[in-house]
Every structure is written in structure tokens, then in C-alpha cells.
Automatic annotation (TrEMBL):
This is Fe2OG dioxygenase domain-containing protein. InterPro entries: DIOX_N, IPNS-like_FE2OG_OXY, IPNS-like_sf, Iron_ascorbate_oxido_reductase, Oxoglu/Fe-dep_dioxygenase_dom. One of its GO terms (molecular function) is oxidoreductase activity. The lineage of its organism: Eukaryota, Fungi, Dikarya, Basidiomycota, Agaricomycotina. Keywords: Iron, Metal-binding, Oxidoreductase. Residues 158-276 form the Fe2OG dioxygenase domain. Residues 68-89 are annotated as: Disordered. Belongs to the iron/ascorbate-dependent oxidoreductase family. Coiled coil: none annotated. The keyword Zinc does not apply.
Amino acid sequence: MSAVPTISLKDFDARKEEITQQLMDASINVGFFTLYDHGIPSEDIQAAFDLSREFFALPDEVKAKTPLDGKNAGWERGTQVRPSTGTADQKESIQLQFARMEGLWPSDEDIAGFRTRAEKFMHQVQTLSIKVMECFAVGLGLPIDTFTEGTVDPGAGDSQSVLRLLHYHSTEGKSFGPNFWRAGAHADFDVLTMLFQRDGEGGLEVCPGRKVVGDFGMGQTWLPVEARQDRIVCNIGDQLMRWSDDRLKSTYHRVRLPEGTESRGPRYSIAFFNQARTNTTIQGPQKKYPEITGGQFIADALARNRMQSAEIARQAAQQPEDKIAREIHFVPQHLQISA
Ligand SMILES: O=C(O)CCC(=O)C(=O)O
Ligand SMILES: [Fe+2]
């Protein structure tokens, strides 16, 4: 396996079967693929990045008016510790949802039309996601609307999908310890992620080979994903891996810091996470795993991350004083690479 497959959605209706086959092959073998000819106008993608830049350029005190609420909505900076690394991602982000956003939308005084502009893009990406999720349903032999009904809120206010604007700070003049990342290795929790990158702002790497959804399953071969604004990077998340009885793979991925002669400038990306609705029941056709609701799935995943992070902190606390604080270099046993 040498690269992340790239798939054209040109003439979608006429080519649906062929596209479904390509999406299935990519998701069974790699868990990642990129889309082109996807139909989202380039000026709308640019507008989403413009919105992101405007927001992150605000002073921290202003961004902190809509803080992360523990339920995947709001702004945070430098707080996301990945269980795989034990260090905080070198980034800031704001997560936006269709529901449960009371008090969490940046105000029009701070950014004119923020909510309208963000929601327009969220709907565009959700609409494209539906097309792709319908292909997966058909490819898996399930009713065509399985994941659409399962993720898209018909008006009940129970959507859990998230748009996340990400800003990885410039690393100009900074140096980092050996276990620092723009985003530490992780698998996504959701059904399907669509990620937008900007030309030349690279560093995303993926590690195919996970067999079972509960596994860490990280190998040692990491494939780079080219950063191009005209391609959408898509990946299967843990919910779809479980919903497909592990046929479609939720693959570990990470974003590394700039190296060698690479630009030290900032990196902006935008991710849309299609999540199962709160009351949707997730279970694959073979019933490999017990039923679980979308709400419980997210609650469990967040609790598991908190537990693993607490364990990392506990182990770090046993290290000499000068090793703690910012520079925690604990690597969990299961992720240590033996020489
Ligand atoms: O910024 C990226 O390229 C990847 C971000 C990511 O994997 C995530 O937020 O889950
Ligand atoms: Fe991710």
C-alpha cells in the first residue's frame, strides 16, 4: 500500500456504482481517500478559510468568550492531550454544531455574520457527506438511508455532527521536545470525516492497518497526505468501523510539526465530523458488537480519553520535577516501538 487513493465524483449519478466500488476499496484497505470534482465551489471553501483566519486572529480574551464546553463545542487553545502522546496538540480550535450551541456562537460584534457563514458551509459539507454515506450504505448491503437517517437531524435537535476550525500556530523560532505534535496520533470517533487543507500546509500522515475498532492498532508505516485545497480528505471514523462490523477501517492519523527546510508558518485546516445522532442505534449487519446509541458512543469515547489522559498524568507525576509540566514525554506501553 503506497498511497491514499484519490477518487473523482464527476458525473456522480451516472457513475454511482463505480464510485461506490472505489469508496469501498479505499475504506476497506486504507480508511482514507481524497475526493476531487466533489461539487463544493472553490470560493466557498476559500470563504470558510477566510472565516477561520478572521476568528483565530481575534485576541484570546475574545475567543475565550465562547469556551469549549466539554461536549465538543466552543474554543480551546493547547488543551487537547492525546492519549497516544501525553502532550497537548500545538493548536487552537473552535468546534461548532447544529444543536446545543446556546452561548457558544461568536457574536456578530466580534465577527460579522459568523454563525450564518459557518452554518452555510456546514450544510454544504453535510450534503456532500450524505452522497458518500449513501454509497457506503449500499456498498455494505444496508438500506441506502442508514447513515443519512443515522446522522442527519430531521428537526429533533439531536444532531451531534461538528465543524472544527483548526489553527496550528507558526513554529518560527520555537523548538519542541521529541513527542510534540500539531495533532498527536488518534482515530476519529465519528462516522465519516471530511477535512479541508490549504495548498502546501502539509504534515498530515496516516497509518493503515487497524483491524478491530477497540484497538490502538498503530503500525510504523505512515503515509503522507498531500495538502491541496481542491481535494477533500475523507476518513472513516470509529462509529462507521463499528457499524460495518470492522469492514471499513477507522485509521490512525496525526499531523507532525514542520521539519528540515519546510515552512514554519501556521497551518489552517477545517474538519467536518459526521456523527451518529444522540438516539441513533449503531449496530452492524453481522451484529459483531452490541447495540450502542450515538449519544452513549460519544460519552464513552470522551470518558475513555479522559481516563487515559489521567493515567498519563499519574505516570508523569512519578517523573522527576523537571520532566513534568509542559514536557511530558510518557509514551504508553502499547505504543512503544521496540528497537
Ligand atoms: O488538521 C488535520 O489535518 C487533521 C485534524 C484531525 O485529524 C482531527 O481534528 O481529528
Ligand atoms: Fe482526526
